[in-house]
Design a protein that fits this description.
alpha/beta; Rossmann fold; globular
Length: 713
């Protein structure tokens, strides 16, 4: 199958009115950021996709369709050849494994759902919320193809509806005539039993999330699966929620509830987890960014190479700091596996890891350990220490397609980008964005006098940066938060400096050097592996795929919530969460067993938990410190000062003269900030007697309902 044939087929489907999207070559996994939600019928978009991924398979969302997916031999409706023949009255695709897809138009008055083996054994359905891979896509070396004379050659509105017997079977799986949701065996769902008829029990905005979560908890408590819970909640959402929640939000609720064991779900009720996790927010209101706190110790554990390097770093550090040691080891493993492995979605191991620590914690030690390991492994040429310009990064990657940059005080670079008019600094961030996304493709270099344009095949730029926490976040501009740079970072904040020690000199363990040298010598693609590598595909288990699916739904739901709240920073950061999860799971597999890596459930669950915590902490810190303007920065700084005062003095008033000492602004600047915060009901101010002599003076304090998290408002 040639790339031109795939592109022409995608364009032909679009001409018929079907939206399409690219899938990873040889697989059914979407290549686009939001899966089938990104599907398009625009010619220019389709041509761009297939220019970037010439061998991509073709996905078609099944919205407005009902596709009957009969899996495997004998490629027939189980036990009824007449029905099998009856299905061959519409477009029919033959799948690589001997199955078939029968594509019908879904009647407008039907609310059928995607199902798996509920119509009959090995018979699935795909409709709204699903997609199919279409001919001439190739999976496992075999192509999908249309059955003779049954090609998809008509728009969706000209396809036939399912035969009457099939419509009756599909109705059997849908809600009953009186609106009662039922399981496959006809039993009413607990959602209906617990709440009565939908007409009499509308769920208004402000109560939808918590109510659906409680209903899902009831179902989980009696052992129902996530799929069953989701099906029931979707029906309750459509019948009773006013207005209904987005589908991805319902999926997120079901996935979150299903994470609890049936025996443990009651604890969540008692502790009121649902009200905390799923409380509704009106559209347009800014998203809450609660502080998840420091990263838990259990998330700083990756078996194998990363753990070994982390342990050695801690044993030899004058002031041991686990987060710094972990961040350095993670970046090192990402660099070693760069351009050598990939996952089923073509994710690579290039990471931008940033460790935030105060002065004196020992930020340089992890960098020194990485440098020593690479030197002894013969990879010292792959080390970089600074960014001079965007062109410098490009030239460096041309000579060293895999490079680990270890950069201190990266907040200084960001501050120059935010405040300087020198285009060189902006070009550095732009180049970092481009190199991150080009890791699975070809980067085309700039033209130079006397030299033709050349390319860098699958560049791997890994970054291990360090900075002071407060300085880093205060250096962020609104543009850096929304242009994708912040979203690509893994930001880890260190704790208090550990106890110092003198006896730290130790040789690098042989096991670490053996692994590093193995990666250095590993050349996928043979002699061409240096310039044009063919990375090894690291497989994942079925359990891992289930975890990934739940994680993607949750990340999509968070993105939708940020979009509804008009929160561009939240949208940008959650948009990259799933991709970063897949990258970390790939690195976990490489660390655990580099010679035979496999992404299992443990890797997927660790990566998901790590990214969820890291993302929420990053959003909290950015909303607290990062500012859209000088005025916004002053506003947040005053809230921070008042929050610190409250921690020490409770609800006592803070005299203005003390505020002015900490914040020596002009009278006009103080007044502008005070008036704004007063109108936002975040502070109160009045003139009262203060000091020993009781002289009246202006005083501030946070409103009783305000907390330190209000500094993000």
């Amino acid at each position: 199958m040639t790339p031109d044939e795939l592109l022409m087929a995608a364009l032909r489907y679009a001409e018929l009115g079907y939206r399409v999207f690219p899938c990873v070559p040889g697989t059914k996994a979407p290549l686009t950021e939001h899966g089938f939600h990104d599907a398009s019928a625009e010619v220019e978009q389709i041509e761009r996709w297939w220019a970037q991924h010439p061998g991509a398979n073709i996905g078609i969302p099944t919205e407005g369709l009902i596709v009957i997916d009969i899996d495997g031999e004998p490629n027939a409706w189980p036990g009824d050849p007449d029905r099998s023949a009856n299905l061959a009255q519409t477009a029919m695709a033959l799948t690589p494994r001997g199955g078939r897809h029968c594509v019908f138009r879904r009647p407008a008055d039907k609310s059928w759902r995607c199902t798996e083996s509920r119509l009959a054994p090995k018979v699935d359905t795909r409709t709204d919320g699903g997609y199919i891979v279409a001919p001439p896509s190739v999976v496992e070396g075999k192509a999908y193809r249309w059955a003779p004379d049954l090609e998809l050659d008509a728009p969706a509105d000209r396809l036939p509806e399912p035969p009457a017997w099939l419509a009756q079977e599909l109705d059997r799986l849908a809600p009953s005539a009186n609106g009662t949701p039922r399981l496959a065996n006809g039993t009413p769902t607990l959602a209906h039993v617990a709440t009565g008829s939908p007409e009499a029990n509308a769920i208004p905005e402000g109560q939808r999330n918590a109510t659906l979560a409680r209903l899902g908890g009831n179902m989980r408590r009696v052992g129902m699966t996530g799929v069953e819970i989701a099906a029931a909640l979707h029906r309750t959402n459509q019948d009773r929620c006013v207005p209904p929640l987005p589908l991805t939000e319902v999926e997120r609720i079901a996935a979150s509830v299903a994470r609890y064991e049936p025996d443990g779900i009651s604890v969540a009720f008692v502790e009121n987890h649902y009200d905390q996790m799923f409380a509704d927010k009106p559209e347009g209101e800014p998203c809450d960014n609660p502080d998840p706190g420091p990263i838990p110790d259990e998330l700083l554990r990756v078996p194998g190479f990363v753990d070994e390097v982390m342990r050695y770093t801690l044993e030899t550090a004058p002031y041991p700091e686990p987060v710094l040691a972990f961040a350095g080891a993670l970046a090192l493993q990402g660099f070693l596996a760069g351009r050598k492995v990939r996952d089923a979605m073509d994710n690579r191991t290039n990471l931008y890891v940033l460790s935030l620590a105060n002065s004196g914690v020992g930020k340089d030690h992890a960098r020194k350990v990485n440098a020593r390991i690479l030197l002894e492994a013969g990879l010292a040429d792959g080390l970089g220490t600074s960014f001079a310009s965007g062109e410098g990064i490009e030239d460096r990657l041309f000579f060293q397609p895999a490079t680990l940059f270890q950069v201190d005080e990266i907040d200084g670079l960001l501050l120059r980008v935010s405040q300087s008019k020198d285009a060189r600094h902006e070009q550095i961030v732009s180049m970092l964005l481009q190199m991150y996304s080009a890791s699975s493709t070809v980067y085309v270099m700039r033209a130079k006098a006397g030299r033709e344009r050349t390319v860098i095949s699958q560049p791997c730029l890994c970054l291990f940066g360090t900075a002071v926490p407060k300085h880093f976040y205060e250096a962020l501009s609104a543009r850096l938060m929304t242009n994708g740079f912040l979203a690509r970072l893994l930001i880890l904040e260190c704790r208090r400096r550990g106890s110092g020690r003198d006896d730290t000199a130790r040789s690098i363990p042989d096991s670490i050097l053996t692994t590093a040298r193995w990666w250095a010598d590993f050349r996928p693609g043979g002699n061409l592996g240096v310039e044009h590598p063919t990375p090894v595909l690291v497989p994942h288990t079925a359990d891992a795929q289930d975890v990934f699916r739940d994680l993607r739904l949750r990340a999509d739901a968070e993105y939708d919530q940020a979009q509804n709240a008009n929160d561009p920073a939240g949208m940008a950061i959650w948009a990259r969460a799933y991709e970063k999860t897949r990258r970390l799971a790939l690195i976990h597999a490489c660390s655990a067993c580099g010679e035979r890596p496999e992404i299992g459930r443990d890797a997927a669950e660790w990566a998901g938990a790590f990214i969820e915590h890291q993302t929420r902490r990053m959003l909290f810190m950015a909303s607290r410190y990062a500012s859209e303007s000088d005025f916004d920065a002053r506003r947040k700084r005053l809230l921070e000062v008042l929050a610190e005062w409250r921690e020490q003095h409770g609800d006592d008033w803070m005299p203005f003269w003390k505020i002015n000492r900490k914040l020596p602004w002009s009278s006009r600047e103080h007044e502008e900030v005070r008036v704004t915060l007063f109108e936002q009901r975040l502070i109160e101010a009045q003139t009262i007697a203060t000091g020993r002599r009781g002289r009246p003076g202006l005083c501030y304090r946070l409103l009783a309902t305000s907390g330190t998290e209000e500094t993000k408002a």
